[in-house]
Protein backbone atom coordinates (compact mmCIF):
# COMPACT_ATOMS: atom_id res chain seq x y z
CA UNK A 1 0.00 0.00 0.00
CA UNK A 2 1.34 3.42 -0.95
CA UNK A 3 0.92 6.04 1.78
CA UNK A 4 0.99 9.79 1.18
CA UNK A 5 0.93 12.07 4.21
CA UNK A 6 0.23 15.26 2.28
CA UNK A 7 -1.67 16.37 -0.79
CA UNK A 8 1.44 18.15 -2.02
CA UNK A 9 3.14 16.39 -4.93
CA UNK A 10 0.63 13.57 -5.24
CA UNK A 11 1.21 11.33 -8.28
CA UNK A 12 -1.21 10.92 -11.15
CA UNK A 13 -3.41 8.08 -9.95
CA UNK A 14 -4.46 5.30 -12.30
CA UNK A 15 -8.27 5.35 -12.68
CA UNK A 16 -8.69 5.98 -8.98
CA UNK A 17 -11.77 4.73 -7.14
CA UNK A 18 -11.87 6.99 -4.10
CA UNK A 19 -13.74 7.14 -0.84
CA UNK A 20 -13.35 9.54 2.07
CA UNK A 21 -13.74 8.93 5.79
CA UNK A 22 -12.13 8.68 9.21
CA UNK A 23 -11.98 4.86 9.11
CA UNK A 24 -11.54 4.86 12.87
CA UNK A 25 -10.84 1.32 14.00
CA UNK A 26 -11.08 -0.11 10.44
CA UNK A 27 -13.92 -2.35 11.61
CA UNK A 28 -16.19 -4.84 9.87
CA UNK A 29 -18.41 -2.12 8.41
CA UNK A 30 -15.39 -0.40 6.91
CA UNK A 31 -14.19 -3.75 5.59
CA UNK A 32 -17.30 -4.12 3.39
CA UNK A 33 -16.70 -0.63 1.99
CA UNK A 34 -13.04 -1.41 1.30
CA UNK A 35 -14.00 -4.60 -0.50
CA UNK A 36 -16.37 -2.52 -2.68
CA UNK A 37 -13.75 0.04 -3.74
CA UNK A 38 -11.19 -2.71 -4.34
CA UNK A 39 -13.68 -4.54 -6.57
CA UNK A 40 -14.65 -1.41 -8.49
CA UNK A 41 -10.99 -0.51 -8.99
CA UNK A 42 -10.21 -4.01 -10.23
CA UNK A 43 -13.10 -3.82 -12.72
CA UNK A 44 -11.61 -0.74 -14.41
CA UNK A 45 -7.93 -1.68 -13.98
CA UNK A 46 -7.59 1.19 -11.55
CA UNK A 47 -6.50 1.65 -7.97
CA UNK A 48 -8.43 1.96 -4.73
CA UNK A 49 -7.71 5.20 -2.89
CA UNK A 50 -8.80 6.02 0.66
CA UNK A 51 -8.66 9.64 1.79
CA UNK A 52 -8.58 10.22 5.52
CA UNK A 53 -7.80 13.15 7.77
CA UNK A 54 -5.52 14.03 10.67
CA UNK A 55 -6.34 15.21 13.21
CA UNK A 56 -9.87 13.91 13.49
CA UNK A 57 -12.15 16.60 11.95
CA UNK A 58 -14.22 16.84 15.14
CA UNK A 59 -11.20 18.28 16.95
CA UNK A 60 -11.13 21.20 14.51
CA UNK A 61 -14.84 21.72 13.91
CA UNK A 62 -15.81 21.33 17.59
CA UNK A 63 -12.65 22.29 19.54
CA UNK A 64 -14.54 22.64 22.82
CA UNK A 65 -15.83 19.06 22.68
CA UNK A 66 -13.39 17.04 24.80
CA UNK A 67 -15.35 13.79 24.60
CA UNK A 68 -13.75 12.34 21.46
CA UNK A 69 -11.86 9.09 21.92
CA UNK A 70 -10.37 7.29 18.94
CA UNK A 71 -10.21 3.58 18.20
CA UNK A 72 -7.06 3.76 16.08
CA UNK A 73 -4.13 6.13 15.81
CA UNK A 74 -2.85 7.10 12.38
CA UNK A 75 -0.12 4.46 12.47
CA UNK A 76 -2.57 1.78 13.60
CA UNK A 77 -4.95 2.81 10.82
CA UNK A 78 -2.18 2.46 8.23
CA UNK A 79 -1.37 -1.04 9.45
CA UNK A 80 -5.03 -2.12 9.40
CA UNK A 81 -5.76 -0.69 5.95
CA UNK A 82 -2.64 -2.29 4.52
CA UNK A 83 -3.96 -5.66 5.70
CA UNK A 84 -7.13 -5.00 3.64
CA UNK A 85 -5.12 -4.63 0.40
CA UNK A 86 -5.99 -0.99 -0.17
CA UNK A 87 -3.79 0.33 -2.99
CA UNK A 88 -3.29 3.87 -1.76
CA UNK A 89 -3.92 5.85 1.42
CA UNK A 90 -3.75 9.64 1.43
CA UNK A 91 -3.62 11.31 4.85
CA UNK A 92 -4.77 14.92 4.60
CA UNK A 93 -4.08 17.56 7.23
CA UNK A 94 -7.44 18.84 8.44
CA UNK A 95 -7.27 22.52 9.34
CA UNK A 96 -9.69 25.32 10.12
CA UNK A 97 -9.05 26.73 6.64
CA UNK A 98 -9.84 23.36 5.07
CA UNK A 99 -13.06 23.08 7.07
CA UNK A 100 -14.50 26.36 5.76
CA UNK A 101 -14.23 25.52 2.06
CA UNK A 102 -17.53 25.69 0.23
CA UNK A 103 -18.88 22.41 -1.10
CA UNK A 104 -17.95 23.45 -4.66
CA UNK A 105 -14.41 24.39 -3.59
CA UNK A 106 -14.03 21.08 -1.78
CA UNK A 107 -15.18 19.15 -4.84
CA UNK A 108 -13.28 21.10 -7.49
CA UNK A 109 -10.14 22.28 -5.68
CA UNK A 110 -9.63 19.32 -3.39
CA UNK A 111 -11.12 16.13 -4.82
CA UNK A 112 -10.94 16.73 -8.57
CA UNK A 113 -7.72 18.77 -8.65
CA UNK A 114 -5.73 16.37 -6.47
CA UNK A 115 -7.22 12.98 -7.32
CA UNK A 116 -8.97 13.17 -10.72
CA UNK A 117 -11.31 10.37 -9.59
CA UNK A 118 -12.81 7.87 -11.99
CA UNK A 119 -15.31 6.79 -9.34
CA UNK A 120 -16.34 8.44 -6.07
CA UNK A 121 -17.89 6.02 -3.58
CA UNK A 122 -20.03 7.72 -0.96
CA UNK A 123 -23.01 7.19 1.30
CA UNK A 124 -26.52 8.52 0.85
CA UNK A 125 -26.08 10.84 3.84
CA UNK A 126 -22.54 12.03 3.13
CA UNK A 127 -22.20 15.81 3.50
CA UNK A 128 -19.19 17.98 2.83
CA UNK A 129 -18.07 21.59 2.63
CA UNK A 130 -18.70 24.52 4.96
CA UNK A 131 -22.19 24.27 6.47
CA UNK A 132 -22.27 20.68 5.11
CA UNK A 133 -24.24 21.78 2.07
CA UNK A 134 -22.55 19.34 -0.32
CA UNK A 135 -24.18 15.93 -0.76
CA UNK A 136 -24.52 13.01 -3.16
CA UNK A 137 -26.90 14.97 -5.40
CA UNK A 138 -24.24 17.63 -5.85
CA UNK A 139 -21.62 15.01 -6.68
CA UNK A 140 -23.93 13.56 -9.33
CA UNK A 141 -24.67 17.01 -10.76
CA UNK A 142 -21.00 17.43 -11.72
CA UNK A 143 -20.34 13.88 -12.99
CA UNK A 144 -20.11 14.91 -16.64
CA UNK A 145 -18.24 18.14 -16.04
CA UNK A 146 -15.50 16.48 -14.01
CA UNK A 147 -15.62 13.10 -15.73
CA UNK A 148 -16.27 10.78 -12.80
CA UNK A 149 -19.02 8.40 -11.73
CA UNK A 150 -20.68 8.27 -8.32
CA UNK A 151 -21.34 4.94 -6.59
CA UNK A 152 -23.72 5.15 -3.66
CA UNK A 153 -23.31 2.92 -0.63
CA UNK A 154 -26.45 1.22 0.57
CA UNK A 155 -28.24 2.78 3.51
CA UNK A 156 -27.69 -0.48 5.38
CA UNK A 157 -23.92 -0.35 4.96
CA UNK A 158 -23.70 3.32 5.95
CA UNK A 159 -25.84 2.66 9.01
CA UNK A 160 -23.76 -0.41 9.85
CA UNK A 161 -20.58 1.66 9.73
CA UNK A 162 -22.03 4.35 11.98
CA UNK A 163 -23.57 1.87 14.40
CA UNK A 164 -20.42 -0.24 14.54
CA UNK A 165 -18.21 2.74 15.41
CA UNK A 166 -20.56 3.85 18.16
CA UNK A 167 -21.19 0.34 19.46
CA UNK A 168 -17.49 -0.50 19.55
CA UNK A 169 -16.75 2.55 21.68
CA UNK A 170 -19.61 1.69 24.05
CA UNK A 171 -18.52 -1.95 24.24
CA UNK A 172 -14.94 -1.00 25.15
CA UNK A 173 -16.10 1.57 27.69
CA UNK A 174 -18.21 -1.18 29.26
CA UNK A 175 -15.38 -3.71 29.12
CA UNK A 176 -17.20 -5.94 26.63
CA UNK A 177 -14.11 -7.14 24.77
CA UNK A 178 -15.96 -10.01 23.09
CA UNK A 179 -18.41 -7.67 21.35
CA UNK A 180 -15.72 -5.13 20.45
CA UNK A 181 -13.58 -7.86 18.87
CA UNK A 182 -16.58 -9.19 16.94
CA UNK A 183 -17.49 -5.76 15.54
CA UNK A 184 -13.90 -4.82 14.77
CA UNK A 185 -13.01 -8.13 13.16
CA UNK A 186 -9.69 -7.97 15.00
CA UNK A 187 -8.38 -7.50 18.52
CA UNK A 188 -8.52 -4.02 19.99
CA UNK A 189 -5.09 -2.79 20.97
CA UNK A 190 -3.28 0.08 22.62
CA UNK A 191 0.39 1.01 22.31
CA UNK A 192 2.65 2.86 24.67
CA UNK A 193 6.02 3.32 26.29
CA UNK A 194 7.04 1.47 29.47
CA UNK A 195 7.68 3.98 32.27
CA UNK A 196 8.78 3.62 35.87
CA UNK A 197 6.16 2.85 38.49
CA UNK A 198 6.30 2.05 42.21
CA UNK A 199 7.67 -1.47 41.65
CA UNK A 200 5.02 -2.92 43.96
CA UNK A 201 4.34 -5.80 41.60
CA UNK A 202 7.77 -7.23 42.28
CA UNK A 203 6.95 -7.50 45.97
CA UNK A 204 4.04 -9.87 45.35
CA UNK A 205 5.58 -11.88 42.52
CA UNK A 206 3.76 -10.18 39.66
CA UNK A 207 6.10 -7.55 38.18
CA UNK A 208 4.30 -5.18 35.86
CA UNK A 209 5.21 -2.72 33.14
CA UNK A 210 3.52 0.66 33.53
CA UNK A 211 2.28 1.89 30.16
CA UNK A 212 2.15 5.51 29.03
CA UNK A 213 -0.22 5.41 26.05
CA UNK A 214 1.12 7.10 22.92
CA UNK A 215 -2.01 9.09 22.07
CA UNK A 216 -4.05 10.80 24.80
CA UNK A 217 -7.17 10.53 22.61
CA UNK A 218 -6.91 6.74 22.40
CA UNK A 219 -9.90 5.02 23.98
CA UNK A 220 -8.91 3.03 27.07
CA UNK A 221 -11.22 0.10 27.92
CA UNK A 222 -13.15 0.02 31.19
CA UNK A 223 -11.26 -0.45 34.44
CA UNK A 224 -10.63 -4.07 35.28
CA UNK A 225 -8.32 -7.03 34.72
CA UNK A 226 -7.79 -8.43 31.22
CA UNK A 227 -6.13 -11.33 29.47
CA UNK A 228 -3.90 -9.77 26.83
CA UNK A 229 -1.26 -10.48 24.25
CA UNK A 230 1.77 -8.24 24.33
CA UNK A 231 3.86 -7.49 21.25
CA UNK A 232 7.41 -6.25 21.70
CA UNK A 233 9.59 -6.01 18.63
CA UNK A 234 9.00 -9.34 16.89
CA UNK A 235 8.01 -11.17 20.08
CA UNK A 236 4.53 -12.01 21.37
CA UNK A 237 3.91 -12.74 25.06
CA UNK A 238 0.91 -13.84 27.05
CA UNK A 239 -0.03 -11.38 29.74
CA UNK A 240 -2.65 -9.88 31.98
CA UNK A 241 -3.37 -6.21 32.37
CA UNK A 242 -4.88 -4.11 35.12
CA UNK A 243 -6.54 -0.81 34.27
CA UNK A 244 -7.62 1.32 37.19
CA UNK A 245 -6.69 2.91 40.50
CA UNK A 246 -5.25 -0.14 42.31
CA UNK A 247 -7.46 0.36 45.39
CA UNK A 248 -5.63 -2.27 47.45
CA UNK A 249 -2.35 -0.35 47.10
CA UNK A 250 -3.21 3.36 47.09
CA UNK A 251 -6.22 4.11 44.89
CA UNK A 252 -4.95 7.56 44.00
CA UNK A 253 -3.72 7.37 40.41
CA UNK A 254 -5.21 5.77 37.31
CA UNK A 255 -2.70 3.28 35.91
CA UNK A 256 -2.28 0.86 33.03
CA UNK A 257 -0.09 -2.03 34.14
CA UNK A 258 0.69 -5.20 32.25
CA UNK A 259 2.27 -8.39 33.56
CA UNK A 260 4.13 -10.46 30.96
CA UNK A 261 4.15 -14.16 31.70
CA UNK A 262 7.48 -16.00 31.61
CA UNK A 263 9.39 -12.78 31.10
CA UNK A 264 11.84 -10.99 33.37
CA UNK A 265 13.87 -8.55 31.24
CA UNK A 266 14.05 -4.77 31.59
CA UNK A 267 11.50 -3.05 29.36
CA UNK A 268 11.84 0.57 30.48
CA UNK A 269 11.61 2.94 27.56
CA UNK A 270 10.42 0.17 25.23
CA UNK A 271 7.34 0.36 23.02
CA UNK A 272 4.68 -2.30 23.66
CA UNK A 273 1.49 -3.12 21.79
CA UNK A 274 -1.20 -4.72 23.95
CA UNK A 275 -4.07 -6.67 22.39
CA UNK A 276 -7.15 -7.25 24.54
CA UNK A 277 -8.43 -10.82 24.47
CA UNK A 278 -10.82 -11.18 27.43
CA UNK A 279 -11.99 -9.18 30.43
CA UNK A 280 -11.42 -11.33 33.51
CA UNK A 281 -13.04 -9.28 36.28
CA UNK A 282 -13.71 -5.88 37.80
CA UNK A 283 -11.01 -4.12 39.72
CA UNK A 284 -11.67 -4.50 43.45
CA UNK A 285 -10.14 -3.70 46.80
CA UNK A 286 -8.71 -6.61 48.79
CA UNK A 287 -8.19 -6.73 52.53
CA UNK A 288 -4.48 -7.48 52.25
CA UNK A 289 -1.64 -7.91 49.76
CA UNK A 290 -1.75 -11.66 50.40
CA UNK A 291 -5.40 -11.77 49.35
CA UNK A 292 -4.52 -9.73 46.25
CA UNK A 293 -1.68 -12.13 45.47
CA UNK A 294 -4.03 -15.13 45.69
CA UNK A 295 -6.48 -13.44 43.32
CA UNK A 296 -3.70 -12.64 40.85
CA UNK A 297 -2.71 -16.31 40.78
CA UNK A 298 -6.31 -17.14 39.90
CA UNK A 299 -6.37 -14.37 37.28
CA UNK A 300 -3.23 -15.80 35.71
CA UNK A 301 -4.78 -19.26 35.44
CA UNK A 302 -7.89 -17.79 33.80
CA UNK A 303 -5.81 -15.64 31.46
CA UNK A 304 -3.78 -18.64 30.31
CA UNK A 305 -7.01 -20.55 29.66
CA UNK A 306 -8.47 -17.79 27.48
CA UNK A 307 -5.21 -17.06 25.69
CA UNK A 308 -4.95 -20.67 24.55
Task: Please outline the helices and strands.
Layout: E1 2-4, E2 16-20, H1 28-43, E3 47-54, H2 57-61, H3 74-83, E4 88-93, H4 96-99, H5 103-115, E5 119-122, H6 136-141, H7 143-146, E6 149-152, H8 155-173, H9 177-184, E7 189-195, H10 200-203, E8 209-213, E9 224-232, E10 235-244, E11 255-260, E12 271-281, H11 289-307
Parallel strand pairs: 1-4, 2-3, 2-5, 3-4, 5-6
Antiparallel strand pairs: 7-8, 7-12, 8-11, 9-10, 9-12, 10-11
Helix pairs in contact: 1-8, 8-9
Overview of the molecule:
The protein is an alpha/beta fold. The protein has two domains: 2-171, Rossmann fold; 188-307, Riboflavin kinase-like (Elongation Factor Tu (Ef-tu), domain 3, Beta Barrel), CATH 2.40.30. It is 35% helix and 25% strand. It has eleven helices and twelve strands. The protein has helices at residues 28-43, 57-61, 74-83, 96-99, 103-115, 136-141, 143-146, 155-173, 177-184, 200-203, 289-307; strands at 2-4, 16-20, 47-54, 88-93, 119-122, 149-152, 189-195, 209-213, 224-232, 235-244, 255-260, 271-281. The protein has a six-stranded parallel beta sheet with strand order 1-4-3-2-5-6. A hairpin with a 2-residue loop joins strand 9 (224-232) and strand 10. Helix 8 packs antiparallel against helix 9 (177-184). It is elongated, with a radius of gyration of 23 Å. The two termini are 32 Å apart. The model has no long low-confidence stretch (mean pLDDT 93).
Amino acid sequence: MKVYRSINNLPKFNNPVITIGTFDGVHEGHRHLIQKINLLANNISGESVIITFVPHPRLIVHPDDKSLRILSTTEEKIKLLEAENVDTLVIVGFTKEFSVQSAKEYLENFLVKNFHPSVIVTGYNHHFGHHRDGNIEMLRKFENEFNYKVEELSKQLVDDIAVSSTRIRIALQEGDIDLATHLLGHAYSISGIVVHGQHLGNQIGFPTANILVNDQLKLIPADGVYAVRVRWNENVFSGMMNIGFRPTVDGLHHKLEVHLMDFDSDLYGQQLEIEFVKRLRDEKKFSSLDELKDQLKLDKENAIRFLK
